[in-house]
Design goal:
The chain has two helices and five strands; from the N terminus they run H-E-E-E-H-E-E. The chain is an alpha+beta fold and about 110 residues long. The chain binds adenosine monophosphate and zinc ion. The site of zinc ion has 6 residues, from helix 1.
């Protein structure tokens, strides 16, 4: 837990969110400013700032994030979806806690 990280606060339930999936290692909740009819964020509970901070031992965790996306998509019967990871400010990343955007339906703009 990083004290000043918004997503760590959501994970610790110190801030509210609309959670759609939770396990020991992963959480998924609705994006507060959706860019598509379905816009979820899927993230590891462990504070990893970005893809640039991933280590070899995080391989399984990253696979898990994608499998959670697949599971949610199946449950919600999505016809298709996009998975997006912004990396660094130049890549559009605003919150420094690694997260996967799951988007489905007509996209308003890229997150
Ligand atoms: P990124 O630009 O990839 O770092 O994405 C950050 C995302 O977090 C944006 O799509 C925001 O709309 C979303 N966001 C910011 N604050 C919250 C919050 N409190 N609850 C849910 N989503 C949030
Ligand atoms: Zn964090």
């Amino acid at each position: 837990m990083m004290a000043d990280c918004l997503f760590c606060k959501i994970i610790k339930k110190k801030l509210p969110s609309d959670i759609v999936y939770e396990s020991d290692s992963v959480i998924a909740f609705k994006d507060i400013n959706p860019k598509a009819p379905v816009h979820l964020l899927i993230l590891p509970k462990e504070h990893i700032p970005s893809v640039n901070h991933l280590k070899k031992e995080d391989r399984e965790l990253m696979g898990e994030l994608i499998l959670v996306a697949q599971k949610i998509a199946k449950e919600k019967k999505l016809k298709g979806y996009k998975l997006i990871i912004n990396v660094g400010r130049g890549g559009g990343q605003l919150i420094d806690h690694l997260h996967l955007h799951l988007l489905s339906g007509k996209l308003l703009e890229l997150p």
